[in-house]
Amino acid sequence: MPSIKLKITQPIAQRCVQDEAPGTLIMDSEVPGLRLVVGAKSASWKLVASINDGTNRGITMTLGRSDALTVI
After folding, report:
1. Residue 40 DSSP label
2. Farthest-apart Cα atoms in the chain, separation
């Protein structure tokens, strides 16, 4: 899965859906854990974090589709 790290804005998110291959992962350079995952027809916002219970396990939470949820 190819990955790109940059400051994600809404216009960049819209362009990535059109220009990037499905499976591309765009990581935000300013918000730790914020990701945009490009699919075949749309992209989804995801947040990656760790659980603070001593196990250091990571979780991924899907926030929503990029065309339904905007970032500032």
Report:
1. S
2. 41
Distance CA 23, CA 21 (A): 6
- At position 38, the amino acid (one-letter code) is V
Distance CA 35, CA 48 (A): 8
Per the listing, tokens 């699919």 go with 39
Residue 39's identity, in one-letter code, is G
* CA angle 37–17–26, rounded 5-degree value: 35
Can you list the positions of beta strands (E) in 10-66? 25-28, 34-38, 43-50, 58-65
Per-residue pLDDT of the chain (72 residues; tens, 9 = 90+): 678 888 998 898 899 889 999 999 999 999 999 999 999 989 999 999 988 888 878 899 999 999 898 876
The DSSP code for 17 is: H
